[in-house]
Amino acid sequence: LARILTIANQKGGVGKTTTAVNLGACLAVIGERVLLVDVDPQANATSGVGHKINPGQPTVYECLFGGEEAAACLLATKVPRLHVLPSHHRLVGAEIELVEAVDRERRLSRLLRPLRSSYDYIIVDCPPSLGLITLNALVAAHSVLVPIQCEYYALEGVSHLLETINLVQEGMNPDLDIFGVVLTMYDRRVRLTARVEEEIRAFFEGLVFGTTIPRNVRLSEAPSFGQPIVLYDILSKGAESYMALAREVIRRA
Amino acid sequence: LARILTIANQKGGVGKTTTAVNLGACLAVIGERVLLVDVDPQANATSGVGHKINPGQPTVYECLFGGEEAAACLLATKVPRLHVLPSHHRLVGAEIELVEAVDRERRLSRLLRPLRSSYDYIIVDCPPSLGLITLNALVAAHSVLVPIQCEYYALEGVSHLLETINLVQEGMNPDLDIFGVVLTMYDRRVRLTARVEEEIRAFFEGLVFGTTIPRNVRLSEAPSFGQPIVLYDILSKGAESYMALAREVIRRA
Ligand SMILES: Nc1ncnc2c1ncn2[C@@H]1O[C@H](COP(=O)(O)OP(=O)(O)OP(=O)(O)O)[C@@H](O)[C@H]1O
Ligand SMILES: Nc1ncnc2c1ncn2[C@@H]1O[C@H](COP(=O)(O)OP(=O)(O)OP(=O)(O)O)[C@@H](O)[C@H]1O
Ligand SMILES: [Mg+2]
Ligand SMILES: [Mg+2]
Prior knowledge:
2 copies of one chain form a homodimer.
Chain A: E1 3-7, H1 16-30, E2 34-38, H2 44-48, H3 60-65, E3 75-76, E4 82-85, H4 94-99, H5 107-112, E5 121-125, H6 132-140, E6 143-149, H7 152-156, H8 158-170, E7 177-184, H9 191-204, H10 217-221, H11 229-232, H12 237-252
Parallel strand pairs in A: 1-5, 1-6, 2-4, 2-5, 6-7
Antiparallel strand pairs in A: 3-4
Helix pairs in contact in A: 1-12
The structure holds adenosine-5'-triphosphate (2 copies) and magnesium ion (2 copies).
């Protein structure tokens, strides 16, 4: 049965999508069966694996609100064993639509349950907020993976993310664990990086992955070709580091 | 009367807060009276100008939902003529609380109106979403300033932001104009940057500011000292570029 791994951090631009897409693709290349679930209305993970949604094509929005089966919306990608449940901008209304919905926190969890037997990992990419969409992803997950940029503003929000995770653990999903913290866009030459990294490692102790993801321009170029880094440039530092992260994830799982 | 300038882009991490704080500080140093309004629950702009909120201290949340007068919550900063209406994490509940509120899109607009006579510019920093908080900021504003990072994912969301701005112009705020687009974390050496910049300039034509903001590590260090760049390192490229942007804003206003 698949392990459901939610990639969350309400701070914007810290590498959630880049981590979801490339960790997913590397796990698939290694041999695991992976489903990438995009619950961000920006739908960056969807285009990051090369898909553009046509009008009328069902997405995660139709699954959460229109009664579609998830299995009917899954798409294959250019990477063998990597599928995606795509998102679309219309999901932006979900925060409001969920407010008055029955079982408003469990919709995603119920949607993903029947898919667990077909995959080894289900990776959920979240929007940059702690609203009802991200809450759904935390309730649905076994584990949370937190990408953190070694910058001051990124550090400030971590305690609120942990508060939200605690609330979910105490209530709707007692089995939720923090799988790990991954340092992204890591630039050893920047003094601030080392200072913030120290604070993160002191705060999270053993939860911080040994693998750090360096700032690597190939990672930001790859999405414009709709390709994960392993297809775009397997020899890049970006590909190497996400492949190392995938191996570390398998070891910890 | 103050011009209300909202800094918005739902893509995360593109430099909204860095632009709000530093454009505000530069305008103040030049001689303008500036109010920075932080409506992001992350409250990065609040800490970016050196403030930490104590329990019981009123913030923008108490103004929007608790009947506090904005004037009672304003704080001075280390920069003369720069004040801030601070935010707090408790604002994270606002998206849900606003759904059923009367006049849910106009709360911020009504809050800021009495302050217009005391300032030349009111700059509003938004969260990375197109929810009711950002909608309030668009309804309250005369103009929108859009920071864009020259990266692929950042480009994808621009059309949705423009759709939202159009909706606001057709309905709740017909006078809203797009003041300009500023390219942030601009790195001339990166090939992707030039490609994305071309698309942005073709799309926005004359709306793109001549001033671009280069990637400059001093800009990311300054917030950890609670200082805008003009106080932290006035000789840095970051300070120079935001000062140039401030002069361009004054010319356009
Ligand atoms: N290690 C890296 N090196 C260089 N660029 C990177 C790296 N990781 C991410 N990027 C780029 O930085 C930007 C932000 O990353 P990404 O979009 O993955 O973050 P996010 O947390 O998903 O953002 P959002 O909060 O908007 O969902 C993107 O343009 C991406 O291509
Ligand atoms: N020109 C720049 N050069 C270097 N670093 C920058 C620059 N502009 C912003 N940063 C850093 O990049 C990160 C993202 O910027 P910032 O937080 O201002 O973006 P934002 O759009 O406000 O993010 P959010 O979507 O989370 O509100 C911050 O850590 C900031 O210090
Ligand atoms: Mg993302
Ligand atoms: Mg911000």
